[in-house]
């Protein structure tokens, strides 16, 4: 018995691998999915998300969410921390790529009519994912606390604030006061690294569970 | 990457005879291809990141408004529409419309798509209206994005 077989047997005795694996491993990937790269877009978005989680964790080790330190801590990441510039830049590009992939994914679903019965609710979960993803981008944009992020957030929260009825509450919750300041940056940081990751995890689980239960629509 | 999409293509209730699906087996061929694609995407991101590092401008200064101020590219269309729409409707000021249409109404419509479009067919030719509306919406978003860049 080779070492591989021994390891396999050890796990097999405990977890019944030989029953669990074949349905996954032997299952043929359907032709229409393989031959059409448009089906990659959802997975691409997910891969970007995983990259964002990993690079984001490293950024959070050095980032300081206060008006006085935020900018300097980002500059420190860019100039002093080993590989810091690369990690932040990959985070930046993966974020943009994820949004683009999500939008293109949504367009594929729309134009292929993949949202129709029985997949209506998965479309609704999908639109929520789009909202969450863009909110990720919006909240992350402020964090470097440079001129552009500060003023773009000022205008952005202003626009959100002028939505009828709910706008006032949205901007109060986001800004945490009358003006963008210390309250805002800690809020945006919490939203960006705590609230949204947990929320997106829940919606991703729902999304993937539904894809798994309902299968990929294979009409085209 | 599309790990999820593989699982459930068909699960025959009773495996009468193994359904022949044209395709490549998940393991190892499909997985190998997935890994290669993932490496390509990760590689491109690393390359982009090294050639164009993430920008960092001057520190924020609440007393010095810079020009131009750009939001993230995926919010540009909201800015563009706000600039574009200058007409009050009755008692509703233009600004309220300019904000509500591209955010509240647009996302509201998006959420409702499967419930508005009751046409069961997913063939391109049998859903001309849905496809036309999709193209119009897309063109609109692109146009307002362009508008926000030009009219700065
Ligand atoms: C974080 C964002 C998202 C991720 C990671 C994601 C991931 C995925 C994946 C991996 C699939 C399998 C098929 C494929 O890749 O094309 C899928 C299917 C699907 N997605 Fe998404 N998705 C996201 C956002 C969205 C959005 C914004 C919508 C629409 C508004 C959407 C609607 C759907 C629907 C309806 C399906 C089933 C398609 C079918 O059966 O053909 N998803 N998603």
The strand count of chain A comes to 1
Shape type of chain B: flat
Please report the first level of CATH classification, the CATH class of chain A. Mainly Alpha
Helix content of chain A: over 70%
User: Largest interface, with Cβ-Cβ < 8 Å?
Assistant: A-B, 87 and 77 residues
- For the record, the count of structural domains of chain A works out to 1
Q: Distance between termini of chain B? A: 40 Å
Q: What is the CATH topology of chain A?
A: Cytochrome Bc1 Complex, Chain C
Head-to-tail CA distance between termini of chain A: 48 Å
Please state the structural category of chain B: mainly alpha
Number of helices of chain B: 5
Do you know the CATH architecture of chain A?
A: Up-down Bundle
The string of secondary-structure elements of chain B, in order, is: HEHHHH
| SSE arrangement of chain A, N to C | HHEHHHHHHHH
Oligomer: heterodimer
Structurally, the number of domains of chain B stands at 2
Number of helices of chain A: 10
Bulk shape of chain A: globular
Properties at a glance:
heterodimer, A: 220 residues, mainly alpha, Cytochrome Bc1 Complex, Chain C, 1% strand, B: 152 residues, 5 helices, flat, binds protoporphyrin IX containing FE
Written account of the structure:
The complex is a heterodimer of chains A (220) and B (152). Chain A contains ten helices and one strand; from the N terminus they run H-H-E-H-H-H-H-H-H-H-H. Chain A is mostly helical. Chain A has one domain (34-214): Cytochrome Bc1 Complex, Chain C (Up-down Bundle). In chain A, helix 7 packs across helix 8 and helix 7 runs antiparallel to helix 10 (182-214). Chain B folds into two domains: 23-56; 73-150, no CATH class. Helix content of chain B is 56%, strand content 2%. In chain B, helix 3 packs across helix 4 (94-116) and helix 3 (76-84) crosses helix 5. Chains A and B meet through strand 1, helix 3, helix 4, helix 5 and helix 6 of A and helix 1, strand 1, helix 2, helix 3 and helix 4 of B. Strand 1 (28-30) of chain A pairs antiparallel with strand 1 of chain B. The complex binds protoporphyrin IX containing FE. Protoporphyrin IX containing FE sits between chains A (39, 41-43, 45-46, 102, 105-106, 109, 114-115, 119, 122-123, 126-127, 129-130, 133, 207, 211, 216-217) and B (2, 4-5).
């Amino acid at each position: 018995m080779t070492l591989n077989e021994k390891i396999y047997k050890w796990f097999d005795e405990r977890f019944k691998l030989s029953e669990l694996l074949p349905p996954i491993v032997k299952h043929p990937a359907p032709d229409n999915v393989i031959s059409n790269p448009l089906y990659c877009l959802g997975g691409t978005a997910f891969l970007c998300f995983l990259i964002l989680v990993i690079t984001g964790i490293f950024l959070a080790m050095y980032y300081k969410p206060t008006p006085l330190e935020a900018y300097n801590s980002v500059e420190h990441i860019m100039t002093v921390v080993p590989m810091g510039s690369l990690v932040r830049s990959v985070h930046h590009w993966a974020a943009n790529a994820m949004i683009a992939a999500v939008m293109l994914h949504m367009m594929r679903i729309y134009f292929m009519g993949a949202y129709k019965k029985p997949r209506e609710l998965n479309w609704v979960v999908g639109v929520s994912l789009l909202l969450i993803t863009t909110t990720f981008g919006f909240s992350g944009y402020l964090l470097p606390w440079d001129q552009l992020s500060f003023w773009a957030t000022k205008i952005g929260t202003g626009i959100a604030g002028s939505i009828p009825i709910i706008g006032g509450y949205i901007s109060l919750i986001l800004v945490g006061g009358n003006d963008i300041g210390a309250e805002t940056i800690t809020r945006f940081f919490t939203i960006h690294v705590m609230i949204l990751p947990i929320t997106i995890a829940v919606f991703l689980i729902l999304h993937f569970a539904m894809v798994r239960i309902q299968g990929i629509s294979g009409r085209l | 990457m599309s790990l999820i999409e593989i699982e459930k293509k068909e699960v025959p209730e009773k495996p009468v005879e193994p359904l022949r699906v044209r395709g490549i087996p998940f393991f190892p061929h499909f997985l190998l291809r997935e890994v290669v694609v993932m490496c390509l995407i990760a590689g491109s991101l690393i390359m982009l990141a090294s050639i164009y590092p993430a920008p960092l401008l001057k520190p924020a200064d609440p007393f010095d408004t810079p020009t131009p101020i750009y939001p993230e590219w995926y919010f540009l269309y909201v800015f563009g529409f706000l600039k574009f729409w200058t007409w009050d409707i009755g008692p509703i000021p233009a600004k309220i419309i300019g904000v509500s249409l591209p955010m509240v109404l647009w996302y509201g419509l998006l959420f409702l798509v499967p419930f508005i479009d009751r046409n069961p067919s997913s063939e391109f030719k049998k859903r001309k209206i849905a496809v036309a509306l999709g193209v119009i919406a897309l063109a609109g978003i692109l146009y307002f994005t362009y508008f926000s860049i030009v009219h700065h």
